Automatic annotation (TrEMBL):
Span list, region Disordered: 1-24
Protein name: Glucose-6-phosphate 1-epimerase
Residues annotated to bind substrate: 78, 102, 107
Gene3D superfamilies assigned to the protein according to its UniProt record, in alphabetical order: 2.70.98.10
Organism lineage string: Eukaryota, Fungi, Dikarya, Ascomycota, Pezizomycotina
Length: 319
């Protein structure tokens, strides 16, 4: 090689980049999967922007997904984290949303994948700071015409799914892009996986008032840790923003924290209701799940033109 003055010196060696999170598409681009180098993963259907799997680094699944869940876009997913917007349940006396299907149209719409971002793990940085965020969008512009007809408002939704090594954060931003106000409700309908529902206790709801939907929608107050011994369907309005802790056989397994979501719904269909749902399998799957659902569902968020509403949950695993 001819030596020449000022020849740039080759780097002695390119610093090895730390392994980066991987994001892949599958099933005809209908699913997005993100995997951290340490093994944690999350899988999201573009249908409903539904998280259908969240695994810890050892491969253990943390969400419950029915074995009969429809994953082909023909029905809201039974399990994972379906999104509830603009209405929780059905509210016949609310004119704007009275014509909408139960839990609204967000969970049964095809969302767009907006992109990914991952933590810049510098060479040699601790794996602990690794994370990857997936963003999804739904707006009146890409909403099914039948849904637009039932709810004729210009809106935008951005849903972010952030996977860290020991937690999953999902957040929803709603914007009113219209020239008139609209009301909405928002809920993250999370199906947490447990080994044995009869060994589960839920704390963090002490002294919270709740509507008991299996007892004539009576308003009650939670006096002790919640155990699930039958069909349970409660809409809690905790006074503060304390974490909801799910323990099993005395050991803490999940901590659920809320950001700007004033309600927590706790649901387990138990045996009869589970047997009555064609997409709930196995029939005794109610023993392995409990829904802890942060939301804003008592009353309505009224968004004026240009307003935005953001709510989020973080589910943290105990190692
Ligand atoms: O979040 C609890 C709940 O509102 C229950 O009343 C039950 O209806 C559950 O949602 C499931 O609703 P879905 O429409 O998914 O069958």
């Amino acid at each position: 090689m001819v030596e020449r003055a000022n020849r740039p010196s080759a780097l002695a060696s390119t610093p090895a980049l730390a392994p980066q999170p991987q994001v892949t598409f599958s099933d005809d681009n209908s699913r997005v999967t993100a995997v951290l180098p340490t093994g944690e993963s999350v899988e999201v259907l573009l249908y409903g922007a539904t998280v259908i799997s969240w695994k810890s680094g050892d491969g253990a699944e943390k969400l419950w997904l029915s074995e009969a869940a429809r994953l082909d876009g023909t029905k809201a997913v039974r399990g994972g984290i379906p999104l509830v917007f603009p209405v929780f349940g059905t509210v016949p006396n609310h004119a704007q949303t009275a014509k909408l299907p139960q839990h609204g149209f967000a969970r049964t719409s095809r969302w767009e994948f907006l992109g990914k971002s991952s933590s810049e793990s510098a060479p040699g940085s601790a794996a602990a700071d690794l994370s990857v965020k997936l963003d999804f969008g739904l707006s009146s512009a890409n909403l099914d015409p039948s849904a637009r007809e039932l709810w004729p408002f210009e809106f935008g939704l951005i849903y972010s799914v952030l996977l860290n090594r020991d937690s999953l954060t999902t957040s929803l931003v709603v914007t009113n892009d219209d020239d008139k106000p609209f009301d909405c409700q928002v809920l993250l309908h999370t199906y947490l996986r447990v080994k044995d529902i009869t060994a589960v206790e839920i704390t963090g709801l002490a002294d919270a008032s709740y509507v008991d939907k299996v007892d004539g929608a009576k308003t009650k107050t939670q006096s002790s840790p919640l155990t699930i011994t039958g069909e349970t369907d409660r809409v809690y309005s905790p006074a503060g923003d304390a974490a909801v802790i799910v323990t099993e056989s005395g050991a803490e397994i999940f901590s659920v924290t809320r950001d700007n979501l004033g309600n927590v719904v706790v649901w387990n269909p138990w045996a009869d209701k589970a047997a009555g749902m064609a997409d709930f399998a196995p029939n005794d799957g109610f023993k392995n799940m409990v829904c802890v659902e942060p939301g804003s569902v008592s009353g309505w968020q009224t968004l004026e033109p240009g307003d935005a509403f953001e709510g989020a949950q973080t589910i943290t695993l105990y190692s």
